[in-house]
Amino acid sequence: MHFQWYPGHMTKAKRMMQENIKLIDLVIELVDARVPLASRNPDIDELGKNKARLILLNKADLAEDRWNEEWKAYFEKQGFSCVKVNSKKGGGLKSIQNVIQEACREKIERDRKKGILNRPVRAMVVGIPNVGKSTFINTLAGKAAAKTGNKPGVTKGKQWIRLNKQVELLDTPGILWPKFEDQSVGLKLAFIGSIKDEILNVEELGAEFIRFANQAYPGILAEKYGIEEAEDSYVCLNRIAESRHCLVRGNELDTEKAAGLLMDDFRNGRLGRLTLEYPE
Ligand code: G4P
User: Fold this and answer.
1) Ligand 1 centroid, distance to 195 Cα (angstroms)
2) Among 123-132, 155-164, 223-232, which is the least confidently predicted range?
């Protein structure tokens, strides 16, 4: 399986982010808790240098909690603030206000020394597609948040959402494109749905996923689909098709449909909480 990327997208997105990043104090980077490294774009470290940094392990509800904890410790050890969140349900968001203040303590202190008091921290949400940026902004901002509109000195057209007296959030997230040479990273991103299925062979993806699941979570497919697991992932895929009555032309097994169904079950947490990569 081979994935390809379009540099055009990346340069444009990067330029936009460079422009926006000048306006902010804090970068809130969303990663997918199931693949916290594969879902990062390494450019962000360069773009966000000299800024306070907060990493959110989003979709923490879909990943194993013991690994969420390990990843949190991993990022904290590297000097990032880190919080586990479920943006969809709001889990973990309560603690974020405090963590933001803590992450920006140096900046607040610098302001104070210059006699600037109570200037809100300005933050921007960034992350690869589908990681949950819009969901996070909407859930965090909620209905109560007022858009502050254009402000003097700020590039025209930028909209800020006032979360409270202490924090303002840029309303448009920064989109980073996944970046990888290692195809196993691409595969993980395909599993979580960050690479559009249209450019992939779903059947092949399903077979790769089965290979991963059988190794990392033996028994999980047997339990979910009532099948006997097999060494050969295509045999397994056939069995899933059989068990889920995925048929074409009457009685031929529709493995493409079965693979789609399998990926959908995984992405929506119906196979349970699964983590696909682990800290060193
Ligand atoms: P983006 O802006 O970064 O591209 O991502 P977006 O917010 O559109 O979220 C992508 C998908 O991820 C959405 O699902 C969203 O509901 C889901 N999502 C976001 N945060 C979380 C989380 O913390 N936990 C879980 N379980 N899901 C999350 P969708 O299928 O595209 O839409 P919908 O079916 O939820 O409406």
Assistant:
1) 14
2) 155-164
Of 124, 173, 171, 128, give the one whose Cα is nearest residue 10. Answer: 128
Residues 6+ apart with CB under 8 A from 180: 3, 38, 186, 189
Q: Is the dihedral angle over the CA atoms 209, 40, 58, 20 positive or is it negative?
A: negative
Pairing of strands 121-127, 174-175: parallel
Cα distance between residue 213 and residue 19, in whole Å: 41
Please check whether residue 160 is in contact with residue 168, taking contact to mean a CB–CB distance below 8 angstroms: yes
Rounded distance from Cα 5 to ligand 1 centre (Å): 23
Residue nearest to atom 18 of ligand 1 (CA): 132
Question: What does the pLDDT look like over 25-49, one tens digit per residue?
Answer: 999 999 999 999 999 988 899 889 8
Facing residues of 121 across strands? 167
